[in-house]
What we know:
This protein is mostly helical and 122 residues long. It has helices spanning 22-32, 51-56, 88-102, 118-121, and strands at residues 62-64, 70-72.
Amino acid sequence: MVHSVFAAGMATGIGGLPHRDPRSATELVLRCTPDLPAVPQLPLRSPHESMIAQWARAVPEVRVTDSGGLVLVPTTDPDVPIEVELDAAAHGGMITFIDTVSALAIPPVAVKAQITGPLTLS
């Protein structure tokens, strides 16, 4: 029998929170949903941290404007590998969450993260 960290009725949350401070958002999710905390996304802190803009930055054909809008640009080499880089503008909530959870004596066994995929972007 395989033991699962998930249980029927286990609570979690959505990632998008109205916080501007990544630390207080992290503390909230760890306090309210300690068994399956959701990695905070803080679009009020930065438009680059909204669900679509946060991960669209990894697509070479997409540029994210200062307001979080998406602009398609031509690419010169479709074979260039995509390298995702976590940066403070787009991933402040995630970076703070990872740093905080890594320092816990007993970190959560599982976490929930929201990552925009290709079907969402199409």
